[in-house]
Amino acid sequence: MIRQLSANDQEICLQLVKQKPAENLFIIGDIEAFGMETDFQRVWGDFNEQNELIAVLLKYQENYIPYANSLFDSVGFAEIMNNDPSFKAMSGLKTVTEQIEPHLRPFRSKRETYYAKGSSLKGLKVNTDVTEIATVADAQNLLAFLKEIPEFKHSVPQTVEKKQRDIESGFSRAVLVKSNGEIVASASTTAENSASAMIVGVATLEAYKHNGYATACVYRLCSDLHLEGKEPCLFYDNPAAGAIYKRIGFEDIGLWMMYGY
Predict the structure, then answer these.
(1) I need a labelling partner for 98 at 20 to 30 A (CA). Which of 80, 134, 146, 251 fits?
(2) Is pLDDT above 70 for 157?
(3) Has residue 183 got a pLDDT over 80?
(4) Residue 105: is its pLDDT beyond 80?
(5) Which whole-number Å values give the CA distances from 241 to 121, 145, 203, 250, in the listed order?
(6) Mean pLDDT of 186-196
(7) CA 91/CA 68 separation, integer angstroms
(8) How far apart are CA 229 and CA 136, in angstroms?
């Protein structure tokens, strides 16, 4: 049975999704930030015959994210989306979205990326002494640094003010390596919540590659997150990039799907 969830259901909803904190990074973060029902967010739950919550469907703006750890009413979730005139996107683990996809109208775009989590770190000899934690004062230089990285050049839409707010609020943090006061490598988090955090912006300037700086940044980030009881996770696009993260201790969760409608 599917029904819309209310504030009274928030605890049982978070209990379900926090069993897999990395897999449910976005659902956990959105619920903790905005609750169960606002003018731009809704949450539905699928309950079994024992009245146990077995699946969750979260709508944030025009995007839907489903989650389940077993079979669920995929037709019912699809009906909710199909009946929503504002529905434009669905994202989630492939094991979940592939159950819903056949019941939705034809998609305009479909993309998949690898998804991994770092539940524990391997005992690598990583020199994290070269790293430092970014402060609000680093925000402007950090954004300028990322714009020097070819793959990030056109995907750094943040303003300095927003980056400063994100660092100050704890929504995001960054670990840096500097040379002569200039940032030469970094790794950041985004969408941090009480149980998990997404690692993004892993980069090194071309002239400073092959020194282990990016590995040191990621390792330091993961160590700090683990100390706070948070599970780090990340997306990567190809096996070569994945091999680097797996040396640190990341393991594949599966594929993350993004559909446009």
Answers:
(1) 251
(2) no
(3) yes
(4) yes
(5) 17, 21, 12, 11
(6) 95
(7) 13
(8) 24
Check pLDDT > 80 for residue 156: no
Q: Which of 55, 105, 110, 63 is nearest to 88 (CA)?
A: 63
Q: Does pLDDT of 227 surpass 80?
A: yes
102/95 Cα distance (integer angstroms): 13
Do 234 and 200 form a contact (C-beta atoms < 8 A)?
yes
Mean pLDDT computed over every residue of the chain: 94
Q: For residues 177 and 179, what is the distance between their CA atoms, to the nearest angstrom?
A: 7
The residue behind tokens 């524990």 is 120
Measured CA to CA, the distance from residue 233 to residue 189 in angstroms comes to: 9
pLDDT per residue as tens digits for the range 59-77: 999 999 999 999 999 999 9
Let me know: does 27 contact 67? Beta carbons within 8 Å. Answer: yes
